[in-house]
Write a structure and sequence with these properties.
The chain contains twelve helices and 18 strands. The protein has about 450 residues and is α+β, with helices and mostly antiparallel strands. The chain has a ten-stranded mixed beta sheet with strand order 11-12-8-7-1-2-3-6-4-18, sandwiched between helices. Helix 1 packs parallel to helix 3 and helix 3 packs across helix 4. The chain is globular. It starts with a strand and ends with a strand.
Amino acid sequence: MTGRIIRIGAGAGFSGDRIEPALELVEHGALDYLAFECLAERTIALAHAARRTNPNAGFDPLLENRMRAVLPAAHARGVRIVTNMGAANPIGAARLVTRIARELGLTGLRTAAVTGDDVLDIIRAGDFPLIDRPGRSGDLGDAIVSANAYLGAGGIVEALAGGADVVITGRVGDPALFLGPLIHEFGWAMDDWERLGRGTVVGHLLECAGQVTGGYFADPGIKDVPDLARLGFPFADVSDDGSAVLGKVDGSGGCLTCATCKEQLLYEILDPAGYLQADVVADFTGVSFELKAPDRVHVRGGTGRPKPDTVKVSIGYEDGFVGEGQISYAGPGAVARGQLALDVVRERLKMTGVPISDLRCELIGLNAIDRTGQVNGPEPREVRVRVAGRTPTRTAAERISAEVEALYTNGPFGGGGAVSSVREVLAVASTLLDRTQIVPSVQYEVA
């Protein structure tokens, strides 16, 4: 690696991620940028649902805690922050960050909100084929609550060029959070497909934060990872040609190796030769890793092809309710008593005519995840009954959990620790929109 280097760190890999490793990166990582990736497929639909109840809500619930933790150190060190924590309300999130900055005395902090991903009106007005199942968007009717397009890095680049210290987006492609700063700093052309592809490699390696430093990699006795309780999050030293050296703060927990990088490179990738993003079709097949020093991995290669004419849109829609009940059995015969409990609940739900479109009856500890239910050696001495069913109404869902609770006195002996829950289901379907229908915009707030 030669020439100018930009160091960008990963501050979060999902909405509920830890905050301390991000602060560690800011204070000890000598960063230029810190990116927080906090949106999953369903997260933004949940954020829209929250905003329907409270118009001032709709952004990541940990936004305030994260900003209060990292803003003072980031501002003092000139570290710029990029995040998709705006979710369904980037402008509201930017205003909150500005208020926090004022309270902390960070005068002049400039925050940008990138919008344009909300395409609900377009989806409701049209009828688009779904790409992940049979049917069309129009089939979902009034159940649709949100529709967000995966924006690329363009809005982030514009915000950084406009002097933003903090950039807050809604839905963007996860690698775009990292690609945007690289395009801005190196002046990459938006049709330099090779560099955009390599920048996407870097972004994809960083986007899940602690996964690449050993978190998702750890498997005791097979792939041991030290000091997971103090897992450090990664950073990348990126060169103008898109190559990078990945690392983590010295003394932090976890590990960063060629093996952790390889696993993360292939994580959630359908086609390594054609990873579709709004900015580029990235090709990961030529990527190579070389361990340069402990917890320092050199990443080379990767390329790209012209970006697709369409962008993916995630449609959030109401899909009924799930009622769930759990109860535990322990000691001799626990499995038999648990199985009897399941049989009783199944029969009760059938007898009482509860409308259920999908029912799961399982014994946690025996067949809840490993569906074979095979037992090598003695049977478990404790199991937990779990019954969950999808229903069209909340009332029907409540009846499922009530039948499990009734096992206290109406089922096998020794049941305990019963819990029940009912939740509304927000499901996600996907379609494609012509990119010309989507226009990002940037709005600024200054402390």
